[in-house]
Structures are given as C-alpha cells and as structure tokens.
Amino acid sequence: MLIVLKERSNENLLTEIQTLLKNKFDCPSHVIGGNRRVIAVTGDTSVVDVEYLKSIAGIRSVDRVERAAMAKARGVKILRGGAYKPRTGPYSFQGKGEEGLKLLAKAGQKYGMKTISEIMKAEDLPAFEEYIDCYQIGARNMQNYELLKALGKSKKPILLKRGLAAKLEEWLLAAEYLLAGGNPNVMLCERGIRTFEEEVRFTLCLGSVPALRELTHLPIIVDPSHAMGKTRWVKDAALGGVAVGADGLIIEIHPRPGESTCDAAQLLDLEHWNECMDGVAAVAAAIGKRVV
Ligand code: PEP
Ligand code: MN
Predict the structure, then answer these.
(1) Phi, psi at 207, each rounded to 5°
(2) Which residues hold their Cβ within 5 A of ligand 2, which is an ion?
(3) Could you give the residue ranges of the DSSP H alpha helices within the chain?
C-alpha cells in the first residue's frame, strides 16, 4: 500500500502516520523516494482502514498497491509491460495480446507515464501505434530484418535489445535498419549474451557500454533483470550499469513477484526495488550524474 502526503506536509506528520500504522494496524512501513512524501506499507494491509487514513489532513492519497502505482511513486517515467511475449516454450503464458496493450495504455494514462511494449510482428503495428508510446524489439527479434524495416517507418521511439549472440557490429547494423528506414529515435539495450556460463541467466556485457559510446551516438540502456535472472543479483548489476555509463535502466518489478505469470525469479518487490533505486541514485551521484 502506498500513502502519499501532500506537498506541504512536514516530517512530524510522516512520523505520526508511521507510528499510527504500527500501533493501530500492526503494519510496518518505510519512507520511499527523495522527497519524503511517500510511505510504503508492507505486510498484510487488509487490516488497514483506508477510509480512516484518507480522512487525515495532510494525506493526499492512499492506494492499495497496484502494479503501476509503486513505479510512479519512485519517479519512473516509462512503464514497460509485455502484451506479446516471446516465450521459450509454447505452453508458457503467451501474453494478453491487444488487450494487454490497452491495459498498459490505461495504466500509463492513469499515472502519467509513457509506455513501452515488445512487438514481434509487423501486422501488430496499427495496434501499437494506437496504444503504445515506444516499441521494444526483443533479443530474439534483433535480426528480424523485415520487422526492423517495418518499424523504421514509425515515428515512435524504439528500444532495440541486443540479440542473444549478437556482436556489437551486428547489433549496430540492426539499429541501422531502423535509422535508414527514417526513424532516428533508437535506443540500444544491453540485456546480456549467451556464453558457457550457466549460473547467471545471461552474461551481462557491461563492457559494451563504453565500447558503444565510441561507436555510436545512440542512447544505451542496461537491463539487469533478464541478464541476472535472480532477484538478489539485479541490484548489483543495475549499479554496474550506471557505473559504466548507461543512460537508463529497465528493471522488472512486481508488488507480489510470486504471482507473476512470467519471469517471477528475477522480479524486484517494492522493498528490493527501493533499495535498488537508492543505490542507483548514489552511484549516479558518485559519477556526477543524477536520476531524472
Ligand atoms: C523482456 O524484455 O521481457 C524480454 C523478453 O527480454 P529479452 O528480449 O531481452 O529476452
Ligand atoms: Mn521479462
């Protein structure tokens, strides 16, 4: 559950509400975000009387945590959700298709966030154009040249993930398809490559970030979630991404990871994610950057 205080609320109110949560409802809470206005309540929040909290002057909103609310509270700008999923096996959850795009668009509108989703075939372009702000081309489709040609015609930004076994040159040439097609708004996403290593899901190639800096002007994003494959390793990989100069991160989060239909083992819950973002802010500051 997220409790957002009004702009002019003071530190006393913050402490008072935290004490109230502990004493009256027996729910632990912690403050998230640099502005000290958002309180995250953890544990069984069904015992919390939401209407009572809302009646307290100084509280702007109280939300039982929805998937997007926790992202918004920490300043996330772009919401990523998969509607068409490239699953390794045919019996795994394949995504909700167009219905998923609509849900993502709705969440984006509600929380004032841009949206991004993976497209797998050119036939789906009209639906994406209607509902989604930004395309993702997944690792498995990095060399789907017909898809690249079709997307080059769109004016919307495109996140091009690195293929599972793509050399930097091949990746940049795939990006070139998009640029040559007329779309200049391309971002590259390092998500790890396949090596002999099996402990981690993929081998996150952080060296690609400084190397790409010399080879291209395109923004570089790091995806620590799909590379590491385990929740407890995502934060360190994210910090590494920031340290080597990534322009952005994509991180998979979920209020209740165990309930996810996809990639449950690598998802960060609210608490882990908060910790991760605190680290990201600290590493960014250490190299003279800041999270926007
Ligand atoms: C994803 O971003 O959800 C995904 C499937 O990633 P990748 O294409 O990098 O495997
Ligand atoms: Mn995923």
Answers:
(1) -65, -20
(2) 263
(3) 11-25, 50-54, 69-73, 98-111, 125-131, 145-152, 168-180, 208-215, 224-228, 231-243, 270-286
The closest ligand to the CA of 253 turns out to be 2
- Selection from 247, 245, 250, 234 nearest residue 201 by Cα: 234
Sheet holding 78-80, edge to edge: 78-80, 114-118, 134-137, 158-161, 186-190, 220-222, 248-249
User: What separation in Å is there between the alpha carbon of 182 and the centre of ligand 1?
Assistant: 25
Question: Pick from 242, 243, 238: which is nearest to 227 by CA?
Answer: 238
Sign of CA dihedral 72, 30, 40, 232: positive
- Using alpha carbons only, what angle is made at residue 252 by residues 136 and 31, rounded to the nearest 5 degrees? 135
Long-range (24+ apart) CB contacts under 8 A made by 98-105 are 98/124, 98/127, 98/131, 101/127, 101/128, 101/131, 101/132, 102/131, 104/79, 104/131, 104/132, 105/131, 105/132
Tokens of 274: 């908060």
The encoded tokens of residue 169 equal 């040159």
Rounded-to-integer distance, Cα 150 and Cα 158, Å: 12
Angle, to 10 degrees, between the axis of helix 168-180 and the axis of helix 208-215? 50
pLDDT tens, residue by residue, 85-108: 999 999 898 999 999 999 999 999
Residue 211 φ/ψ, nearest 5 degrees: -65, -45
Lining residues, ligand 1, CB within 6 Å: 82, 86, 138-140, 161, 191, 226
Give the total residue count for the chain: 292
Q: Please give the pLDDT value at position 63.
A: 81
* Beta strands at 38-41 and 2-5: parallel, antiparallel or unpaired: antiparallel
| Positions in the chain short of pLDDT 50 | none
How would DSSP label each residue in 132-151?
-SEEEE-GGGTT-HHHHHHH
